[in-house]
Amino acid sequence: MHIPILVYHNIASVPRELQRQRSLYVPPRLFARQMWLLQKLGYRGLSMAAATPYLSGERKGRVVAITLDDGYVDNLSNALPILKRYNFSATCYVVSSALGLYNKWDADKLGIRKPTMNAAQLRTWSDAGMEVGAHTCTHPYLTQCDDTQLVHEIAGSKASLEQVIDKPISQFCYPYGDVNTRVANATRQAGFTAATTTQRGRANKDNDPMLLPRIKITRSQILPSFAQRVFTAYEDRRG
Question: CATH no. for residue 139?
Answer without folding.
Answer: 3.20.20.370
